[in-house]
Amino acid sequence: MPAEANRAVSERPRPEGTTEAVPGKTIGDYTHPDAVMSCRNVDVYYGDKQAVMDVSLDIGRNEVISMIGPSGCGKSTFLRCLNRMNDTIDIARVTGDITLDGENIYDKRLDVVQLRARVGMVFQKPNPFPKSIFENVAYGPRIHGMARDKTDLEEIVHESLERAGLLKEVKDRMDQPGTGLSGGQQQRLCIARAIAVNPEVVLMDEPCSALDPIATARIEDLIDELKQKYTIAIVTHSMQQAARVSQRTAYFHLGILVEVGTTDHIFTNPTHKLTEDYITGRFG
Ligand SMILES: Nc1ncnc2c1ncn2[C@@H]1O[C@H](COP(=O)(O)OP(=O)(O)OP(=O)(O)O)[C@@H](O)[C@H]1O
Ligand SMILES: [Mg+2]
Q1: pLDDT tens digits, residue range 224-235?
Q2: Spans in the chain with pLDDT lower than 70
Q3: 282 torsion bin: left (phi>0), alpha (psi -120 to 50), beta (else)
Q4: Which of 143, 130, 265, 253 has its CA nearest to residue 189?
Q5: Which protein residue has the closest C-alpha to ligand 1 atom 6?
Q6: Ligand nearest to the CA of 78
Q7: pLDDT at residue 19 in the model
Q8: How does pLDDT run across 80-100, given as a tens digit for each residue?
């Protein structure tokens, strides 16, 4: 965080009534003129406990949007709503509207496997399948019938690895296990696996938290390249990372989407006191 950013924050006046976190009263424009996904009034409960409260947010096409906030504020829970990963948690219940290209993703007729191809996910800890490097990437295109023949499949695998910035490092050992790669390589393999099925959106939940600074920098460069083709929603605890990779930032607090805006605005001139406290390190 540049020092001038913090100065700018402390010197500007704050509009009245922007110190409390109020469900459904997000500060800033939560809409996007070219939304690929739209969330309206999303609540998530784990049993009786509400973890996400009345969140409305658009995710814009080809943008990188980062989700920040203190531990336990519901970032991962909200992210998992976007490809119905909360369905895999028995006690989780999601209400509200979430659409992908205008289509309700919680519609009972919707094929969740298809949805998760269109909205892929990369997790905190790299989780390659216990298969070869080639098979890790080929798996999705194969089950979705995306390749006409073996050559076609090889092309998809190579292109995905190339786009994930990994091809050079692995092209001579495609038949070796994915789990034998370094942590940073494994994470790029997981990104290659996610993009191999041509998703529209890639969700990333703290994708660099298990990586060293060099591997992190590679992933950040990659995110920047991938946004030409995909939309990326990333949860991060690193404000430097959010500032470096995203165009929009959403700040969560106790399950509430407190403020959303351009990354520049959120980090230099946030409107809400809670956002300011978090980005200046007074909270969290
Ligand atoms: N599987 C679960 N069962 C019950 N409660 C859960 C579950 N997952 C999360 N929670 C609760 O929901 C709230 C939000 O958790 P979540 O993991 O979404 O936060 P987070 O912002 O991603 O935190 P962190 O930064 O630590 O990853 C927390 O109170 C957490 O304890
Ligand atoms: Mg989390």
Answers
A1: 999 999 999 999
A2: 1-17, 283-284
A3: alpha
A4: 130
A5: 46
A6: 1
A7: 82
A8: 999 999 999 999 999 999 999
Q: What number does the ligand 1 atom closest to the CA of 70 have? A: 25
Residue of 191, 174, 192 lying closest to 131 (CA atoms): 174
The single residue listed with the structure tokens 């190579």 is 158
Nearest listed ligand to the Cα of residue 51: 1
Region of 103 please: left (phi>0), alpha (psi -120 to 50) or beta: beta
Return the best residue to mutate from 42, 46, 90 for the ligand 1 pocket (most ligand atoms within 8 A of CB): 46
149 CB-near residues (< 8 Å, 6+ apart): none
Supply the pTM of this predicted model: 0.93
- Please name which ligand lies nearest the alpha carbon of 253: 1
From 55, 77, 123, mutation site for ligand 1 pocket: most ligand atoms within 8 A of C-beta: 77
* Spacing, Cα 4 to ligand 1 middle (Å): 33
- According to the model, what pLDDT value does residue 1 have? 47
Query: 132: which DSSP letter?
Result: B
How many angstroms separate the CA atoms of 57 and 98, rounded? 9
Query: How many alpha carbons fall within 13 Å on the CB side of residue 196?
Result: 32
Domains within the chain, CATH numbers bracketed? 3-14+26-130+194-279 (3.40.50.300)
Residue whose Cα lies nearest atom 14 of ligand 1: it is 74
At a CB cut-off of 8 Å and minimum separation 6, what does 90 contact? none
Distance CA 170, CA 165 (A): 10
- Cβ < 6 A, ligand 1 pocket: 46, 51, 69, 71-77, 89, 91
